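Figure 6 in text form: structure in, sequence out.
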């Protein structure tokens, strides 16, 4: 039935069939998020740094490493463009270095001066270790305890993910899955181009399990993994795991809500935890909105002063709670414009658009710079190099409002009621074929207003280039009660079918929107009674790695 994927009899558990239920993608013979007889788990992006750009010093037909000439090697790739026996065949020959394949000439973009770069990537450098990505999920599903689950998680090798786990024995745990490379020279940061003129620009293996971030049964009684950075500042492992992560607002809000539930030894109820998935309070907005309002201009060229006053007043009154009816569009547009206008004062427009979404840019522009500016010192970021005097927040907020106000007026309307969040922040569930020309509209669902935003626990990210429509977010919601066996509820934001005309194309959306997941059956007999189809068998042919699944 819709919302229930149950696979039976695939892994053996002490001579008995094991069952796993949860969610997956069509064509993948494993459940990626779900539960087994003794475990439930969730997976989310850890932002671990598993790629390095290495700048090469060219020398004739090769490159220089530690003062010595090294010749390039070559690797040939062959592509057949079609199934027909006479389909054209294209061959590409790539140069390779000790630091991986050499990227096309002129590659580099905003990462540094144009030059010649090689790519170090765990998917290329560790072929044997990447050979068990499918079986890793079966091993995880049948794990009885944290040790068995930890071993399974390490074989889920790419990309590195944050895995939260709970067990019927009462254990909760966090593990960073996959391969994290050990940088030979930790002084060369993983978020910078590495110096390929030195041999230690490369990797010297991978981190051991106990060297990666991990946690089991913390004293506070809960674990929050919400895409935030998984390491503190100054930790040695940052030189390998990296510095990136989502901005911490969601994780901080989750921590506050859960702490309130368990404060003083209280036991949280399952439905209380489930309700937190629908939390729509943005801590960053609570902090930033009054600052923007304080520096909001009284005039904007081409607009009536009363309209400007109403626009700024709505920012001042916004409490950071992104309900569908919240007057949130002025704040959200202005906050985004403030970051962009600040960045554009120091780099060209093209570069600003490339990097504006990076977490470190947002942290520097919004968190650090604003706090400096309203504190005892001026921030150099709020100082346009083309002007003589220090511009400050007044000038940059004025620039932001100058961009945001006409955009809100054009997209939403000119009255305060037009600036409701749900007027533009809308989700259209889309089938797999929605992007196909001509027939794509048949797979595009009805548009619905949505609460929340990217920095709230109910993470529904607006597309600033397309009138704030929801483009990504928490498309799957799951909650597990670790009884024996576990009782797990799950729902996704559309349905279980991509077929036009199917009753399951978008039938889960109302439950997802309301935060009401459905119980996943762990009984094969129950599933058998209501199933509409079954995956009987599968085969994968053509594996070249003898150790692979």
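Output sequence:
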């Amino acid at each position: 039935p819709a919302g229930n994927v149950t696979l039976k009899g695939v892994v053996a558990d002490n001579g008995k069939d094991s069952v796993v239920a949860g969610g997956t993608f069509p064509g993948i013979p494993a459940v990626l998020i779900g539960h087994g007889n003794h475990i439930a788990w969730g997976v989310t992006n850890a932002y671990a740094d598993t790629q390095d750009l290495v700048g090469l010093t060219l020398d004739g037909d090769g490159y220089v490493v530690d003062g010595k000439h090294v010749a390039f090697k070559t690797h040939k790739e062959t592509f057949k463009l079609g199934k027909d026996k006479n389909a054209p065949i294209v061959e590409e020959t790539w140069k390779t270095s000790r630091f991986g394949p050499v990227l096309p000439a002129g590659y580099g973009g905003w990462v540094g001066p144009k030059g010649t770069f090689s790519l170090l990537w765990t998917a290329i450098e560790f072929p044997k270790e990447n050979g068990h990505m499918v079986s890793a999920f079966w091993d995880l599903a049948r794990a009885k305890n944290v040790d068995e689950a930890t071993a399974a998680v390490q074989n889920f090798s790419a990309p590195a993910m944050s895995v939260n786990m709970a067990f019927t024995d009462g254990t909760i745990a966090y593990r960073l899955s996959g391969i994290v490379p050990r940088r030979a020279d930790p002084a060369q940061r993983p978020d910078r181009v590495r110096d390929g003129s030195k041999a230690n620009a490369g990797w010297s293996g991978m981190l051991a399990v106990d060297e990666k971030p991990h946690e089991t049964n913390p004293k506070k009684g809960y674990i929050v993994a919400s895409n935030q950075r998984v390491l503190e500042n100054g930790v040695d492992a940052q030189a390998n795991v990296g510095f990136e992560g989502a901005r911490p607002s969601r994780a901080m809000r989750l921590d506050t809500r859960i702490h309130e539930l368990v404060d003083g030894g209280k036991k949280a109820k399952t439905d209380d935890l489930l309700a937190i998935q629908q939390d729509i309070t943005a801590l960053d907005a609570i902090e930033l909105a009054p600052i923007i309002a304080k520096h909001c201009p009284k005039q904007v060229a081409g607009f009536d002063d009363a309209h400007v006053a109403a626009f700024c007043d709505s920012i001042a009154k916004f409490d950071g709670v992104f309900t569908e009816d919240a007057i949130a569009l002025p704040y959200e547009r202005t906050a985004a414009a403030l970051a962009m206008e600040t960045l554009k004062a120091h780099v060209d427009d093209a570069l600003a658009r490339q990097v504006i979404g990076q977490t470190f840019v947002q942290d520097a522009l919004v968190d650090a710079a604003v706090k400096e500016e309203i504190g005892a010192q001026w921030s150099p970021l709020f100082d346009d190099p083309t002007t003589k005097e220090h511009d400050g927040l007044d000038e940059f907020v004025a620039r932001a409002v100058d961009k945001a106000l006409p955009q809100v007026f054009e997209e939403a309307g000119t009255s305060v009621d037009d600036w409701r969040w749900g007027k533009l922040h809308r989700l259209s569930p889309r089938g797999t074929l929605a992007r196909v020309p001509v027939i794509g509209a048949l797979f595009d669902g009805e548009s619905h207003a949505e609460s929340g935003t990217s920095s709230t626990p109910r993470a529904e990210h607006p597309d600033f280039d397309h009138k704030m429509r929801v483009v990504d977010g928490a498309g799957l919601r799951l909650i597990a009660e670790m009884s024996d066996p576990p009782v797990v509820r799950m729902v996704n934001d559309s349905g279980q079918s991509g077929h036009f005309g199917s009753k399951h194309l978008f039938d889960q959306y109302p439950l997802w929107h309301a935060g009401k997941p459905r119980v996943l059956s762990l009984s094969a007999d129950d599933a058998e009674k209501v199933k509409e189809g079954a995956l009987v068998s599968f085969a994968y042919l053509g594996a070249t790695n003898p150790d692979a699944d």
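Caption detail: The longest helix spans residues 392-411.
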